Amino acid sequence: MKNYEEKIKRFIDELVEDYNSADLIKNMLVIDPFKENDQPRFFQIGRRIELPKKFFSDTDKVGTKDIADDLIKVLNGGEKLFIVEQIREKVKKVITTPQFSYEDLISAANQVDEPTDLFIPLSKACWQELHNLQYNKQIIFEQGELQLLIKQKPIKIHWSNTYAPFKNIYIINRKKIKIIQKKFKNTQLPNGLTIPEHYPKLNKDESEIMVYFGEAKNSENFDIYFRVVVSELILEENTAACKIELLNEEENKLD
């Protein structure tokens, strides 16, 4: 492990840096500190992979920044899908439509107290409608982000993607949705992961993203598990979110 330790620690620093800048949960939702008597359901978001040990060798000249960037994209997609799935499970206000339109967005936005974010599937119907809105100057770019204008107030747009596929539309007020996030010091080793005793501690107690290196069955690889641990979403009131159910969305998928 000594031949890999320095580069592994640098790789974890890169993951933490990328996560802190791209973390959807921390940058979007209201985070409550974890307390030992907290009783909500907790979930882990992340992935388990194997990577060749040679990537982390002191003698290998290949950088790990690109690997860290790709893993955070996966984690960010997992967080987006988790948020959408939790809202789908808990949302009280639902609008159904056979053919998506800007009027549906207005109707849904009226159901949400000061809407801030829009989650929308990347389909032909949705893409075409938002393209038309951009032509009519109801879509703007603000600080490098695509935003929808409703009543002249910007709403940040989040498209579905390979890492976060979803079929319906959700409008939320991020300030009315809470979540509890555990830190490394609040968690135990994931089930099924074996870390040799001689491996050093790689995570800081206050870290929100946790990275574990273990021995893979293939002795030339590391068994790597990266994750965050969060609670179910807590919607403060019924006006925190609204769902637009797209009845014909299956017919409108992009190829």
How does this structure look, described?
- With 255 residues, the chain is α+β, with helices and mostly antiparallel strands.
- It has two domains: 2-74 and 188-234, no CATH class; 88-177 and 235-252.
- The chain is 29% helix and 29% strand.
- It has helices spanning 2-22, 24-28, 65-90, 102-110, 124-135; strands spanning 30-32, 42-52, 93-97, 117-120, 139-142, 145-150, 153-159, 169-172, 177-180, 210-215, 221-231, 234-235, 241-246.
- It has a seven-stranded mixed sheet, sandwiched between helices. A three-stranded mixed sheet has the order 1-9-12.
- Helix 1 (2-22) packs across helix 3 (65-90).
- The longest helix is centred in the N-terminal third of the chain and has 26 residues, at 65-90.
- The N and C termini lie far apart (46 Å).
